[in-house]
Amino acid sequence: MPGTTATDLPSFPFPELNDNPFDPLAYQERLPEQGPITRVALPTGGWAWLLTQLADVREVLRSPAFSADIMKPGFPLLRPLPAQRDARDRAGVFIRMDPPEHGRYRRMLTPEFMIKSVRRLEPLIQRTVEGFLDDMIAAGPPADLVASFALPVPSLVICHLLGVPYDDHDFFQSRSRVLLSNTTSVADAQAAADELQDYLSRLVTAKERDGGDDLLGRLVAHRLRDGQLTHDEAIGMALLLLVAGHETTANMIGLSTLVLLRHREQFEALGVDPGRAPALVEELLRYLTIVRSGLPRIAVEDAVVGGQQIRAGEGVIALLPAANRDEAVFVDADRFDVDRGGQHHVAFGFGVHQCIGQPLARTELRIALAALAQRLPTLRLAVPPDEVAVRPSFIHGLQKLPVTW
Ligand code: HEM
Question: Rounded to an integer, what distance in angstroms lies between the CA atom of residue 23 and that of residue 178?
C-alpha cells in the first residue's frame, strides 16, 4: 500500500481485547477515526486488514478467495512460525487447511460431533458436572471456580470422548496453556507442541495395539488401519481436538459464571427453570466472544469486501468480538440481553472452519451453568470484582474465579 508503512498503523492485537471481560471494543477509543475496515500493524511485521462488521466477517470466512493456510507467504501471523518445522507439525491439523484437503479430515470427525452423538454424551456430562460440584461443595467455601469446576468439566469430557487418560490432564493442560498464551516465545510454543505430539504419538500407538471404544480408537480402527490416515495425521487431529476442546469451553464456563453473578436475576431464573439455558448460552457466546484476537486469513485472489478492494497476498483478520457487537445487527449490542435471540453470532466462526465442537460446547455450557444455578443459588464473588484477573491468552478467560456461597 503506497505511502503508509506498518509502523504508522495501530498495533494489533489491542490489549483492551484481552483486558476487558465485558467491553472488548474499548480499544476503539484509541484508534484514529476510521471506517469499519481498517489496517493494523502486526507483531510479526507487516500489516493486515481488520474486519469488524458481521457481514464482512461472514463474507471472508465463507469465501474461497481467502485461505486459512498459515504457511502461505504473507499470512497475518500474531506469533512467528518456528524456523524449523517438521512435517508432523502440519499433518492432520485441518483448522489450517483449505478445501478440498480440509474436508477430507473434517468429514472423518463429523459423525462424532453430530447432535445425536453429543446427546449420547449428556449423561456423562451431567455426572461429571454433578461430581465436581459435589467435591467443591464438600470442600466448603471459598473456592476457585476455575480450578474446581470450569476447567475440570470440559477437560474430563474431552478426555473421555477422545480416549485420553484423564490422569494426564495436568500435563496436557499446562502444555496447551503455553500454546495458547499470547506471551509465549516461539521456542516455548514449539517445545510444548513437541511434548504434546510425543504424548499423543504414544497414545495412538497404544490404540493401534489395543483398540478402544473412543474417538481415537475409532479413527485408528476405521481410518488408520485401511490407509486413509497416517499415524502423524491422527496425532495432528487429536492435538487439535484436545487443545480446542477444553480450554475454550472452560473459559466460557468461568466467564459466563462471572456474567451471571453480575446479572443475578438471570442466575436465579436459571436455577428455577433450566429450560432458560439454551437462550442464555447463546447470548453468553455472543456477549463474551472468547476468540478475542479474531480469525486470520490471507487473500489468494483479489476480492472486494464491504466495498474495500483486497488484493491477493494481503492478510485479513476477522475480528469476531467486534462482529458480534455490530450495532447494525445486534441492537444495543453492548448490553447483555438474553431475549435478543442472538443466534446469528459468529462466536464459533463461520464457513467451512466453523467450530466442529459447537454442539458439545453448547451442551456442556447448558448443563454446567444450570447445575451451578440450581445447586448453589447463593453463589457470589469472594473478592471485589476488579480483583478478578484475566489470563493472557489468544482465547479470553479468567485466571481464577474466587467464589463463596
Ligand atoms: C465455547 C467453546 C468454543 C468456542 C468459542 C470455539 C470457537 C471456535 C472458532 C471461532 C473456530 C473457527 C476457527 C477458524 O475458522 O479458524 C473453531 C474451530 C474449531 N473448533 Fe471450536 N470452539 C469451542 C469449543 C470447541 C470444542 C469443545 C471442540 C472439540 C471438542 C472444538 C474443536 C474445534 C475444531 C476441531 C475446530 C476446527 C474446525 C475446522 O477447521 O474445520 N471447539 N472453534
Answer: 25
